[in-house]
Amino acid sequence: MVRDGGSNMKRAARVSQIIAIDCNIHQLQLCIRAALAIDECISSLLAKCKQIATHFNHSIIAQSELKGFQERLGLPLLSVIQECPTDGIFIPNDWLQLESCATILKPFEEATKTMSSSEACISSVIPLIHVLTCTLENLLRQNINNTGQTCGNIIQKLIEEITNRFGDLHNNKIYTIATYLDPKYKTKFFNEITKESIESELISLCQDQEGHGAQAQPQIQSFEHDVIQHNQHFHHTDTESLPSTSSGANFSTGRFLQSMLSEMLASAPNSDDEENPIAPIDRFLILKSLIINYIKEKRIGLQEDSLLWWKMNPKYFELYRAVRQYLSAPPSSVPSERLFSGAGLVYDELRNRLSGETASK
């Protein structure tokens, strides 16, 4: 179960004996809040921004004047907001500080959007957090073009918060097995000890299926049906939700993390085609051979569908049970929150007695 960090939600999962994980996007936002709160100047600037935003959101006259101002300047989006006597006033240095903060937080926006996608899987968390940490470390070394100690402190705090909140992911089999079973990533982000631990877990899980060989074909058919349903939705999504692999991406494109992740995956060998598959002797070696052969397969691109890959490779059907279990959970609760928001738009005061069938239409 994917849940927020509320104590009541944690207790509900514990009492119900349900395996649960935190919403990873919620955890990222907590990292950002903690980092921005360490500097009084930045906190003051953000308070001014909120004050101005609140003013324009509650004043139709202000919105109209702002729109007219944008049209006269021929700008689709105005970065400098018209001064209001009741709001805080920015000095030039304030804008530079906000611009630096926006640069620091741009990778977090990209990670948030990536994990908010309805096609996102928990398998993307470890790779994204790894790339996000590397990006912050690079920014710390550059110190955002030497703009000052404030930005360096914020970056350092972000790294600390990410380490505290996500540092134990490599010891959590829910995340590690999901990443291992995703043909986009496999073993790229694991050391040998973690890799061996994951493979032991997979073999144990597969050995539990021993004696159920007659059910293999129905499992394949059922799995393919699930994937077909997934693909029908996947291929109708906006192409903007798909990650870009362009090496020329930067912060301004909103695809920096995906570009960096693509380069990391491309730098590692995809497979070892010269080795021959191991000849299976007993049940353990059969499963071990299956896993080794899976790892030897070439990794797919970031823009490709992982579940479609599993559908097209039924020779690994003995791993289907693990795939069903570990490639099913999303990394955040955003998709379910969107569902509730959508239902709230349907069931209003004038449509509060719709049947479930009518509402779904």
Automatic annotation (TrEMBL):
Q: Which residues form a coiled coil?
A: none
What superkingdom does the record give? Eukaryota
Instruction: Pull one GO CC term from this UniProt entry.
Output: nucleus
Q: Which UniProt keywords apply?
A: Metal-binding, Nucleus, Zinc, Zinc-finger
Where in the cell is the protein located?
Nucleus
What is the species of this protein?
Parnassius apollo
Q: What is its main location?
A: nucleus
InterPro entries xrefs: HATC_C_dom, ZnF_BED_domain_contain
* Domain HAT C-terminal dimerisation as annotated: residue spans: 293-359
Question: What are the GO MF terms of this UniProt record?
Answer: protein dimerization activity; zinc ion binding
Record protein name field: (apollo) hypothetical protein
